[in-house]
Specification:
two-stranded antiparallel sheet, 14 helices, Rossmann fold, 390 residues, six-stranded mixed β-sheet, alpha/beta
C-alpha cells in the first residue's frame, strides 16, 4: 500500500511540475496581444518571408550596443526589405528580446520578449527605445531557446528564419546549454548569427564563434562603443520635410487609431533625438510597403479594399464627428493620392541620397547595423532571395 501511495504521489508531483513548465512566466508573453501578427498560434503566409529575431544583451556594459541598434534599426529594415523572391515582394517580420538585465526576473533567466514577430514597425521601435541597461547575468543559451520556442516561425521552405544574438559575456553561461538550444533551432531551419561586442579573438574564446558555427550562421564582432556616423547629403532636409507631409495623410480610426497616430509622431521624435540619419532612414521606411498601418489608419484600410471606414472614423475620431460620410470618403481618397505622391518623391530622393553616400562614404568601423545587414544579405542571396530590380 505504501508503495502504491508513493507511486500516486510521485505521479501527482510530476503532473504539477509538467503543468508548471507549460505555464509561461508573464514576462515571456507578447507585451501587447494586438501586435501579434500570428493569430491562433499560426503563421499566416502571404508570400516569401524573412523573419528576424534580434536578441540584445541589455546588461550594464551594453549601452553602446543598444544605442547602435536604436540608431540603425530603420536602415536594417530598409536594406533587407529591398529583396524579392521570384519577382515577388517579401514580407518582413522582426521580433525583439532583451536579456541579461538584473531588473528582469531571475525565474525568466533575466530575459524578456519585447516584441513577437511582427510587421508593426512603430510598435517595434517603441519597444526598442524602451530598453534601459542594468547589470546582470547573460544567458545566451536560454534566450536562444526561448526565441526558437515561443515565436511563431514559418515552416515554409522558401522562407528565411534568422536569430541575431549580440552580447559580450561567455556564450556558455546559464542553466540551458547553448548547444542544445541551437540544435532545436536547427530543427526549425533557423539560422543563428552571433555578434560579439569586443575583440574578435576574445569572442572566439568565449564560444561565440562556436555557437554560430553549430547553427550554420555567421560569427561577427563589433566595437559597441563606436559611434554611428551620418554622412550629410543635399537631400536630407527634403526627405525630412516630406516625412512631415506624409504624416498628415494618416487618419487614425478604431479603438486605438488616435493613440497609434500619436505614437507615429512620438517615434519620429525619438529617431530625430538620436540623429538626422536615424530620422531619414525611418522616413524612408515609412515610404515602403513594409510600413504597415492598416490596423489603425483609415487610408491604409481603404487602400486594402475596406470601403466602410467613414462610419468608424465618425464614431472613433472626434475631429471628424461633424463631417458627413461622403465628406470623409473624399478626404480619404485625397489623402491616399497625396500619400502615393509623397512616397514616390521620398523614394526618388533616397536613390539620390544613396548614390551620394557611395561617393562620399563615412570613414568608420562597421557597427551593429552594418555587420548585420552585410551578413543577412549574403544569407538571403544564398536562400534564393534577390536584390536585383524586378
Amino acid at each position: 500500500m505504501k508503495r502504491a501511495s508513493s507511486i500516486v504521489l510521485g505521479l501527482l508531483l510530476a503532473t504539477q511540475l509538467y503543468a508548471s513548465e507549460l505555464k509561461l512566466p508573464k514576462v515571456l508573453y507578447p507585451t501587447d496581444k494586438q501586435h501579434s501578427t500570428l493569430p491562433e498560434g499560426k503563421f499566416i503566409r502571404t508570400g516569401p518571408t524573412i523573419q528576424i529575431a534580434i536578441l540584445l544583451d541589455s546588461s550594464n556594459s551594453m549601452d553602446g550596443l543598444i544605442s547602435q541598434a536604436k540608431e540603425q534599426i530603420w536602415n536594417i529594415i530598409n536594406e533587407v526589405s529591398k529583396a524579392n523572391k521570384d519577382s515577388k515582394d517579401i514580407t518582413m517580420q522582426v521580433a525583439l528580446y532583451e536579456y541579461g538585465k538584473s531588473t528582469l526576473p531571475a525565474s525568466s533567466g533575466y530575459i524578456r520578449m519585447l516584441s513577437p514577430l511582427t510587421n508593426d514597425l512603430d510598435f517595434l521601435s517603441e519597444k526598442l527605445f524602451s530598453i534601459k541597461t542594468k547589470g546582470g547575468s547573460e544567458y545566451a543559451g536560454e534566450v536562444i531557446s526561448k526565441a526558437q520556442k515561443f515565436l511563431y516561425w514559418s515552416s515554409h521552405p522558401d522562407d528565411l528564419r534568422i536569430i541575431i544574438i549580440a552580447g559580450n559575456e561567455g556564450f556558455d553561461q546559464g542553466r540551458i546549454e547553448y548547444k542544445n538550444s541551437i540544435a532545436k533551432a536547427k530543427e526549425k531551419n533557423i539560422i543563428v548569427n552571433t555578434i560579439f561586442c569586443g575583440d574578435y579573438r576574445q569572442g572566439i574564446a568565449l564560444k561565440w564563434q562556436d555557437g554560430a558555427n553549430l547553427a550554420g550562421g555567421r560569427y561577427m564582432n563589433i566595437d559597441s562603443d563606436a559611434k554611428v556616423v551620418h554622412v550629410p547629403t543635399p537631400y536630407d532636409e527634403k526627405i525630412i520635410g516630406l516625412n512631415s507631409k506624409l504624416n498628415s495623410t494618416y487618419i487614425g480610426y478604431g479603438a486605438n487609431g488616435v493613440k497609434y497616430k500619436k505614437r507615429q509622431m512620438v517615434e519620429d521624435q525619438k529617431s530625430r533625438g538620436l540623429s538626422i540619419g536615424s530620422l531619414i532612414n525611418r522616413s524612408v521606411s515609412k515610404s515602403t510597403k513594409q510600413y504597415k498601418t492598416d490596423s489603425w489608419d483609415a487610408v491604409s484600410s481603404y487602400e486594402k479594399g475596406e470601403r466602410h471606414v467613414a462610419r468608424r472614423i465618425k464614431e472613433t475620431n472626434a475631429k471628424f464627428k461633424d463631417k458627413t460620410e461622403d465628406e470623409i470618403d473624399q478626404i480619404i481618397q485625397q489623402s491616399s493620392k497625396e500619400r502615393e505622391k509623397i512616397k514616390s518623391d521620398i523614394q526618388s530622393l533616397e536613390k539620390k541620397r544613396r548614390a551620394y553616400i557611395q561617393k562620399h562614404p563615412a570613414k568608420t568601423d562597421m557597427t551593429f547595423g552594418d555587420k548585420l545587414i552585410k551578413e543577412i544579405k549574403e544569407q538571403m542571396i544564398e536562400g534564393g532571395f534577390s536584390f536585383s530590380s524586378k
